[in-house]
Amino acid sequence: MTDSVSNSDATAAPAGEKINLLGLPEAKLVAFFETLGEKRFRAAQVLKWIHQLGVDNFDEMTNISKALREKLKSQCEIRAPEVLRQLDSTDGTRKFLIRVTGGSVVETVFIPDGERGTLCVSSQVGCSLDCSFCATGKQGFNRDLSAAEIIAQVWIAAKSFGQLAPNGPRKVTNVVMMGMGEPLMNFDNVVDAMNLMMHDNAYGISKRRVTLSTSGVVPQLDRLREYTDACLAISLHAPNDELRNELVPINKKYPIAMLLDSAKRYIESLPDTHRKITIEYTLIDHVNDRPEHARQLAELLRDVPVKINLIPFNPFNLSNYKRVSNNAMRRFQDILMQEGYITTVRTTRGDDIDAACGQLAGEVNDITKRSQRYKAQFSQAEPVTIVTQ
Ligand code: SF4
C-alpha cells in the first residue's frame, strides 16, 4: 500500500503560485524537501507544525533553521479556505460553510456523540451523480476539491475546538467522507487527504475511524486497496437494481452485484479480518421503506460482511420525497435485525442549522444548469412517489 497516488506533482504549483503545503501527505512532503536538498525528517517536522499545532506561519516553526524558513516562505504557503459561516446547533452539531477558491461554498458538519466526534467532510463542489434524494446532486457538478481543501475541513474544525494545540482536546475522533460529492470521482485528492487524517505525524485518527462512503464507482473502488485501508461505506438505498436505477443513477452503469463484489474484494484485502462494510440506506416514505424491501435487502446482503445504517430522508426544497414514518422505520429495522443484521438508525441532528448535507451550500452555489433545471421543474411538478413491489 502506498500513502499517495503520485509523488511527481509535489512541487507542481501553477506558475506564479506558491505550493500549498496543507494538502501534501508525508510522501509528497519528503519528495519536496529532497528537491530543496533537505533531509527527509523535515517533512515530519512540518506535518506536525501544520496538522498537530495548527500553524500556518513559517516563522513559528522554531525547530527549523531561519534560512530554511525563508526558503519555504518564498516558495510555499499554508493556506486554508475561508470559513464563510459557522453555525452551532443546540445539540452540539457544528456546521461550517467554507468558501473555496473560485467562490463556491462547501459544507462540513461536526456531530458530537458522547466521547465520539464525527466530522462529515466534502470532496467536491456539487456532484455529477444526481441521486434523486440528494440536495447536493440537485446543484450539479462544479469542481473537485484539492487535497488541501479536503484536509482543510479537518484542520478548520479541529482548530475551532482548540484541538490543534499542545494537549488540545481531541474533539474530532472520526471522519466520514460523506459530505458533498462522490469521493471516488476525486480519487487522488481524497486518498492524499485521508492518508493525512490517519498519519501519526498529522491527525493520527485510527483507520477504523476514517470512512470513505461511495455510491458505487466500481473501477475506482477496485483501486482503493492499493492506497488506503480505511473503512468503507456503500450508499445503497435500494435492495434491487430497478429501484436503485431510479434513486442512484450510477447503478445503471455499475449494478448492485458488481458493486457488492467490488466492496467485498476491498474489505477482504484488509489485514484485520473483522471489519464490516457499512451499508447506508436512506428510507423514503413509500419509495423504499416497505417490508418487502427490507426482506429483499436481507437476502441481498446474505454473504457480505455488513452492518446497516438506516437514515430517515431529510426533506429539502426541490424534492417531493417525504420523510419515512417512525412506524415504517421501526418495522424496517426490526426485519433486518430479525434476519441477524446489526442495524442502526441515524438520529437527525442539527435540525436548527439545516445540517443535512448540501442544504445550505446549495442555496449559495445556485449556479449550475442542473440546479436551474430542477428549480424550473420543481415549480411545475406534481408530487411523485415510487413504489415497487
Ligand atoms: S448522494 Fe452522494 S453521490 Fe449521490 S448525488 Fe449526493 S453527493 Fe453525489
TrEMBL record:
Binds 1 [4Fe-4S] cluster. The cluster is coordinated with 3 cysteines and an exchangeable S-adenosyl-L-methionine. Pfam families: Radical_SAM, RlmN_N. Gene3D superfamilies: 1.10.150.530, Aldolase class I. Its main location: cytoplasm. It catalyses: adenosine(37) in tRNA + 2 reduced [2Fe-2S]-[ferredoxin] + 2 S-adenosyl-L-methionine = 2-methyladenosine(37) in tRNA + 5'-deoxyadenosine + L-methionine + 2 oxidized [2Fe-2S]-[ferredoxin] + S-adenosyl-L-homocysteine; adenosine(2503) in 23S rRNA + 2 reduced [2Fe-2S]-[ferredoxin] + 2 S-adenosyl-L-methionine = 2-methyladenosine(2503) in 23S rRNA + 5'-deoxyadenosine + L-methionine + 2 oxidized [2Fe-2S]-[ferredoxin] + S-adenosyl-L-homocysteine. Residues 113-351 form the Radical SAM core domain. Reaction proceeds by a ping-pong mechanism involving intermediate methylation of a conserved cysteine residue. Specifically methylates position 2 of adenine 2503 in 23S rRNA and position 2 of adenine 37 in tRNAs. m2A2503 modification seems to play a crucial role in the proofreading step occurring at the peptidyl transferase center and thus would serve to optimize ribosomal fidelity. This is Dual-specificity RNA methyltransferase RlmN. It comes from Gilvimarinus xylanilyticus.
